[in-house]
Amino acid sequence: MAEEEMITALDNYLKVGIHIGTKSKTKYMEPFIYKVRQDGLTVLNVQSVDKRLKVAAKMVSRYEPQDIFVVCRRENGWEIVKMFSELTGIRVFAGRYPPGILTNSALETFTEAKLILVVDPWPDRNAINDAINMGIPVIALCDTNNTSVNVDLVLPCNNKGKKSLGLIFWVLAREYLKSRGKDISKPLEDFIVE
Question: pTM value?
Fold first, then answer.
């Protein structure tokens, strides 16, 4: 794939280690795996990551900010998703997601959404279950050890690395704003700090 066709430079993907997976892999993620290294770590196919990131960006861009809900239980992603929210106006839930936020209108925290994006399907499974019960499509950032059960769009990536998450959310923010005729006001470097 020619680099100019990619949604971001190949060098950006490689610098943040978006392609470095875990030592375990699931059958769900096998189509996205390029190889297993000598040390046992799996390596994702960067072209697959790029292709799915483009699809996710287009999908997210079809919705208004108030119709999208991002859930991130992983602490290493909290700052990043909050920055994403500041730029786009998309609501985020950083922390442990208690079941019922999308399904129980009696809760003070009740939220309506038309699209859910989760940072990791395992710790964010309560949000996925709520979304499934409400018929809401789910985009999930999936590492090599994740399953894609109840996920509508798998975005293969290193979903544990702070820099990798920073790149994903910066690209999503940039593409979302571009679809609305705006420019992103923060550089990539702001999203991929230690």
Answer: 0.94
